[in-house]
């Protein structure tokens, strides 16, 4: 199968899963946001951030190493699977017994039971690493897509039913636990693994040189992405954390459901070009241009529809999330592109440079978070600092990639942004004019008006610049 066919097929199936998942996720979030208080969302946010920290140690960079290494035997995989089983059991027990310390630090007893329940999730996420990685390694994107959507839909439905029956914040725990258990069962039936009480460490040594730097990158990336929530919950209160978390999650929704349809496909396919960096660079450039045309204009739309988005999805009780979401939305475009960079580092066997780039990113992000919380003491300041550091990290990441990995000029990379930026300027001008001249009290009508203006302007620009012959394609479809 050709690269274009292989990539487009994988993206298509991931897109079906993710974009249908958007609908499910929005419905679930909208219902739960009206049944559960911002403070309870803040409590769950803290628990999820902490369990994510333990998950970093459970992964150890094993999954991408399995995908990258083409010579692992069944015996090697059995050894690695056995290692993840015992590792998952140990980490789950540590997390379970750490619940009292975590609750004491945040002075919130309800965190004890929440963390103990989530220790189940940590175990199944860990033992799922090997069978899940094999699905991606063998490019079973159709199976992955329908599996993910089915589990997401079922888990979301159960969460809503539980919340409607008075489960409170515990309804938020159902989906992650249900998903981790169900995904493991499905994956292990697809790729059965032999369990060993005593495993051979030599199998781990095969992937260690690759996975070690991947693990270090994951570790520092964790602090870069989650320190804001840990500190806001501790020093600014759970209610403010709830508002911030909702803003952040809403900002991440388009990011996850656009790039996550592409990035899981990129590494398994681009790893075939680890010995042909020119082909890797040329192939990636096409992905960057596509994402620039999607992400950058989307940032403009989210900036002008931030009020409508928050109120429609979450309701009036989340009105304090609007300014934070509006600021964070400015980073959506560059994050959509930046989130694919790791696949290139991985495919080029450059996880050491991935770690170095991640370390620089973490230093900048952590500095921005600390400035926003301890100097300005404001959620809005935190949002501005994070947006600025994401922008700086975009520059340093791609400088390292083109200077030290692809070893070619970044001029062609920069050229991919010329036309998308012109489109953004046009969209910004039109939406700014609409926002000042037409003020609608009905938020749904306002969102539809701005969305329609965005779609029409976007379509005309794409057609007139010949980026995509929309008219021609429609004409052919009709014929």
Short synopsis of the structure:
With 479 residues, this protein is mainly alpha-helical. It has helices at 3-35, 38-59, 62-68, 74-97, 99-106, 110-127, 129-137, 141-164, 171-190, 201-235, 238-259, 263-270, 277-304, 306-314, 322-328, 332-338, 341-347, 351-375, 379-405, 411-415, 418-437, 443-464, 470-478.
Low-confidence stretches at least 5 residues in length (pLDDT < 50)?
none
**Beta-strand percentage range:** under 5%
Span between N and C termini? Answer: 29 Å
**What kind of sheet is the major sheet?**
none
The topology string of helices and strands comes to: HHHHHHHHHHHHHHHHHHHHHHH
How many strands appear in the DSSP assignment?
Answer: 0
Given helix and strand content, the structural type is mainly alpha
- Rg over CA atoms: 23 Å
Average pLDDT figure: 82
Outline, from the CA principal axes? globular
How many structural units, i.e. domains? 2
Helix fraction bin: over 70%
Q: Number of DSSP helices?
A: 23
Structure description:
By secondary structure, the chain is an all-alpha fold. The chain has two domains: 3-416, no CATH class; 419-479, no CATH class. The protein is 83% helix and 0% strand. The protein is built from 23 helices and no strands. It has helices spanning 3-35, 38-59, 62-68, 74-97, 99-106, 110-127, 129-137, 141-164, 171-190, 201-235, 238-259, 263-270, 277-304, 306-314, 322-328, 332-338, 341-347, 351-375, 379-405, 411-415, 418-437, 443-464, 470-478. α2 (38-59) runs antiparallel to α10 and α15 (322-328) packs parallel to α19. The longest helix has 35 residues, at 201-235. It is globular. The model has no long low-confidence stretch (mean pLDDT 82).
């Amino acid at each position: 199968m050709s690269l274009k066919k292989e990539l487009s097929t994988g993206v298509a199936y991931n897109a079906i899963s993710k974009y249908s998942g958007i609908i499910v996720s929005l419905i679930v979030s909208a219902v739960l946001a009206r049944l559960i208080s911002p403070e309870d969302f803040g409590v769950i946010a803290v628990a999820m951030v902490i369990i994510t920290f333990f998950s970093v140690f459970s992964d150890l960079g094993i999954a991408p190493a399995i995908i990258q290494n083409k010579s692992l035997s069944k015996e090697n995989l059995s050894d690695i699977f056995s290692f993840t089983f015992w590792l998952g059991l140990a980490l789950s027990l540590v997390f379970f017994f750490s619940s009292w310390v975590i609750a004491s630090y945040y002075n919130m007893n309800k965190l004890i039971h929440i963390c103990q329940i989530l220790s189940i999730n940590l175990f199944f996420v860990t033992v799922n690493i090997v069978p899940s990685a094999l699905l991606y390694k063998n490019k079973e994107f159709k199976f992955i897509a329908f599996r993910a959507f089915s589990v997401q839909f079922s888990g979301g439905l159960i969460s809503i039913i539980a919340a409607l029956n008075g489960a409170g914040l515990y309804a938020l725990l159902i989906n992650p636990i249900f998903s981790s258990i169900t995904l493991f069962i499905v994956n292990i039936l697809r790729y059965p693994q032999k369990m060993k009480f005593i495993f051979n460490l030599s199998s781990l040594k095969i992937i260690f040189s690759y996975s070690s730097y991947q693990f270090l990158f994951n570790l520092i990336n964790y602090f870069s992405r989650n320190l804001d929530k840990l500190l806001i919950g501790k020093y600014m209160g759970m209610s403010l954390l709830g508002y911030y978390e909702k803003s952040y999650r809403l900002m991440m929704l388009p990011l996850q459901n656009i790039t996550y349809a592409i990035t899981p496909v990129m590494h398994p396919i681009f790893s075939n070009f680890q010995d042909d960096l020119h082909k890797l660079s040329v192939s990636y450039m096409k992905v960057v241009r596509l994402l620039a045309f999607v992400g950058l204009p989307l940032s403009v739309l989210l900036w002008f529809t931030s009020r409508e988005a928050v109120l429609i999805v979450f309701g009036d009780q989340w009105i304090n999330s609007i300014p934070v979401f509006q600021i964070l939305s400015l980073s959506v475009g560059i994050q959509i592109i930046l989130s694919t960079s790791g696949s290139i580092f991985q495919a080029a066997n450059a996880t050491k440079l991935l770690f170095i780039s991640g370390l620089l990113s973490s230093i900048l992000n952590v500095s921005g978070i600390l400035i926003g919380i301890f100097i300005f003491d404001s959620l809005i300041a935190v949002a501005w600092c994070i947006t600025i550091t994401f922008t700086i990290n975009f520059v340093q990441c791609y400088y390292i990639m083109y200077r030290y990995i692809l070893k070619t000029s970044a001029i062609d990379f920069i050229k991919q942004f010329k036309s998308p930026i012109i489109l953004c300027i046009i969209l910004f001008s039109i939406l700014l004019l609409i926002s000042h001249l037409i003020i609608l009290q009905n938020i749904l009508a306002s969102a539809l008006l701005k969305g329609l203006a965005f779609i029409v302007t976007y379509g005309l620009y794409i057609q007139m610049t010949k980026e995509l012959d929309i008219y021609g394609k429609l004409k052919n479809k009709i014929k």
